[in-house]
Amino acid sequence: MHNPVPSVPAPRSQVSRLLPASRRADLENVLTAELLTVVAGARRRTLRDGDRQIDTAHLLHSLLETDPEAGAAFDSGHQVARVLGYLVQRSIGYGLRWQRSVEDTGGSLPVLRAGEPAASGWSPAAAAALGRAFERAARRGDRRVRGLDLLAVLAAEPDSRAGEVLRRAGVDRTVLTARIAELSQQV
After folding, report:
1. Number of other CB atoms surrounding residue 77 within 10 Å
2. Is 40 or 96 the better-scoring residue by pLDDT?
3. At 113, phi and psi to the nearest 5?
């Protein structure tokens, strides 16, 4: 008997396969329009800032600028403004100094394995975060990754650049994670 192909892509292999710009059509099949905008914004921010790769802070910055659902997960507009303040300082060369360096995978995000094609233009941590967002969507039974999926992953990883920004901005990750869970159930 032939086993049917699962409707949700296998996350880790999909991350490395889908992220190159030449595969945009593939991304459109698994990311919501809002998350496609987030990815495009993160790529533009990376280029403008002179960074070598999209990292988790670029993703967080673009996510908060473009996805209202992600902003709604925070305690208040003040908290979002504080997070964005740290991210803007970083982009103009003040505060958090990561420019022209590569983000590693942090504490618990998996490294892309040897033999997997490199996710061109993405830090290992950002590629792994997107992979975890695919996994989260699949557990929810959804074929498409939403901004809340990515925000949940970014909030769960304290050692990533996004995690550092959230910590410095005084965001309680436990409260943020609970709000993300609550908002995810409403859809």
Report:
1. 10
2. 40
3. -75, 155
